[in-house]
């Protein structure tokens, strides 16, 4: 039989993995397709789905199987609110041994499966074509992107490692085709003993911060999503880590590609005033998990809004592993510079790249927007804003910042 699995709320990939894991205790000879990111079909406006299809055998009758599927949905926090609406997990019995039947609880085959590319494409990936009505042309135009299978890919990791010019940063790494978040994976790995400098790379990151809703336009493999495990010892405040990582990314693309990047406090990397990358620091034990996202390839599409890519800026489709190796080298050099020379060198470099200092900004905090002038950063990486003579100390994480013209 074939079961369709979909999720478009919360950590979608984690729900898919939990579903496959639970189904492996219900079905024999389980196989599952690659993961696909798919535009919602029907229902109210809602976020994109992740979908896959599971194949397996069972002795359960279809209604007992449906009971099991619904128990798995419920265990994954499924709330039935809107028909066709957003859900953490949806399990549909698509096909049961070629049988056709319908009653109040169950219609098999699933009545809409041949109208949905998010079902047909994963079936194809499994090498399966089920007999059914002819599929309308329009169905094949529903947007779907194949992301691949989860799990580490050691061969690709080795090819990336070979591109490195570092001594320790990135020398131990995991490469994944699809991952919910490289920071999350690295935090888990840290807890299991990953060494300093360990790195995680994902060809597609499904649920990393800042990605949701911006998925369409970036094909898997066009953007760099990576995290590095760096020792926290030299830098006391995580706000400084954000600035240091920003300086490393900016100096890497400046040196490697002769670009003129800018840094927007606290953690955006800009080219020509448009966002090309972002940084997310999380601490784990004695480490700073340093997450970096960079738009490497890709033409500026309308859905990108204020974003850009290295390809747009250089006119070249740069290999991701080359960009990654340049970033790893710069991180190693800046972490070591920190150990040798203290924080001043990094603050000075940050000020040089800054596009935030000495200009009007709006601070969006819990107590509403505050307009002011960005005056400086201090030794902890906090931003000082002058709002009509009142000096505010702004720390990352609590606020977001908008530049104002003028
Ligand atoms: N039911 C009848 N037949 C079946 C079957 N073959 N498999 C009954 C599973 N359930 C079946 O389902 C409502 C009732 O359908 C169940 O109580 C069961 O007795 P539900 O899961 O509670 O509600 P639902 O999911 O909102 O309705 P339905 O009909 O399952 O919707 P679909 O067809 O699952 O559509 N777009 C993308 N890109 N990817 C998606 O995964 N999913 C939907 C949901 C809409 N758009 C989507 C996706
Ligand atoms: Mg359903």
Describe this structure in words.
The structure is a single chain. The protein is α+β, with helices and mostly antiparallel strands. The protein folds into three domains: 2-148, 7,8-Dihydro-6-hydroxymethylpterin-pyrophosphokinase HPPK (Alpha-Beta Plaits); 154-353, Bira Bifunctional Protein, Domain 2 (BirA Bifunctional Protein, domain 2, 2-Layer Sandwich); 360-401, SH3 type barrels (Roll). The chain is built from nine helices and 20 strands. The protein has helices at 12-23, 62-75, 117-125, 154-162, 182-191, 238-257, 310-314, 320-341, 344-353; strands at residues 2-7, 28-32, 35-38, 49-57, 90-95, 101-102, 107-108, 144-148, 173-179, 199-205, 223-231, 262-264, 268-271, 274-284, 287-295, 360-365, 368-377, 383-387, 390-394, 400-403. The strands form four sheets. A seven-stranded mixed beta sheet has the order 9-10-11-15-14-13-12, with helices on both faces. Strands 1, 2, 3, 4, 5 and 8 form a six-stranded antiparallel beta sheet that branches. Strands 19-18-17-16-20 form a five-stranded antiparallel beta sheet, with no helix packed on it. α6 (238-257) packs across α8 and α6 (238-257) crosses α9 (344-353). The model is unreliable at 211-217 (pLDDT under 50). Residues 90, 92 line the site of magnesium ion.
